Amino acid sequence: MPTRDLTSSTFQDTISSDGIVLVDFWAAWCGPCRMFAPIFEAASEKHGDIVFAKVDTEANQDLAAAFRIMSIPTLMAFRDGILVYAQPGALPAHLLENLIEQVRALNMNEVRAEIARAQAGQANP
């Protein structure tokens, strides 16, 4: 499946969907971003059940600011609408595959329970 270009108007609906969404924050002038692009594209062709999306940080500075993107490329993984990974840096293909396997293997009931515990702890200082 080809990658999707996300904008402010399409971002929230895309990441909120069920399943896995990988988002690459990038810019045309960024050398590491250009090196990572074909790796990301190849993974999108291999994993048709995952949404692979890109955010051009120059065209969507509001999104880059909202997610505090300080370094590009930054890769984020969402599963069932929950951010489960966010890290700057271009990944080689084998590490991207490893990340995909790890995101697939997550027990989302445990993730939700952990989030609930963390939120409860913040509510009780």
TrEMBL record:
Family matches, as PROSITE patterns: THIOREDOXIN_1, THIOREDOXIN_2
MF term (GO), any: protein-disulfide reductase activity
Keywords: Disulfide bond, Electron transport, Redox-active center, Transport
Leader sequence segment: none
Domain Thioredoxin: 1-105
Annotated CDD domains: TRX_family
GO cellular component, one term: cytosol
Family that this chain belongs to: Belongs to the thioredoxin family.
NCBIfam families per record: thioredoxin
Name assigned to this protein: Thioredoxin
